[in-house]
Amino acid sequence: MREIARLCSQIRLLTLKQLHHLGFGHYGGSLSIAEVLAVLYGKVMKFDPANPAWERDYFILSKGHGGPALYAALHLSGFFEEEVLYTLNQNGTALPSHPDRNLTAGVDMTTGSLGQGISAAVGAALSHKLSGRPNRTFVIVGDGELNEGQCWEAVQFAAYHKLHNLYVFVDDNKQQLDGPTKDIIDPLDFVRKFEAFGFYSERVNGHDTAAIFDSIERGGAQRENPAAIILDTVKGKGVPYFERMDNSHHIRANDEQNLLIEKSIRELEEKGVRT
Description:
Blueprint: H1 2-22, E1 24-25, H2 27-31, H3 34-44, E2 58-61, H4 67-76, H5 117-130, E3 137-142, H6 149-160, E4 166-172, E5 175-176, E6 179-180, H7 181-184, H8 190-197, E7 200-205, H9 209-221, E8 227-232, H10 240-244, E9 251-252, H11 255-270
Parallel strand pairs: 2-3, 3-4, 4-8, 7-8
Antiparallel strand pairs: 1-9, 5-6
């Protein structure tokens, strides 16, 4: 898993560099999903950047505000050049703040209105099953996003139709826009909730690439039910200042924060992380 760990560091570095160049954005929820993106794009998913229409696995970032991390993973997977990353959220960009399938190579679904991406993922998984195709669908949802009732309708539908080709990752970083998730709507035990709906479900360290990969393998091995993998993560992972913040959902960095971001970028580069 050494190469996957390196890919994760590259995703985190490029996420920081994009947002630092822009001067603001969704640092917290982008940085917390670097590991799962590295596992998916570096080891698990079948795709071909030269032939995006190929019968590939599908990926949907339901928590669309994590777009900068996804863009980093797409660049590193060969979908576009690095300089495109630094047009993030600017006029005429192919990389809007939230992913848009009509603008960005490698994006399978436009997302950003929280609660809807998981429904689209369920639809893709059902289509593959009905057509007898081996393609799998992977979707990342936010813990705060699961306040939305539509998510649980999709979960119930997926379990009823035995969509074993669907993998749902919950980025359980314990923060959402308005504060800690436990103070907004306490999510209780995600594993037990997904199990109650009929999913295979387990919780893993969301910053351990080997643990994430092994969990995907276990979810796929049972070949009957959709899988929910609850990622125990830290919002703002990789920038200690952000990790300690009460809310790092969206940051317009001040001078002090910019210095800390630049320090984190230098530390990653000094560790030999190159893009």
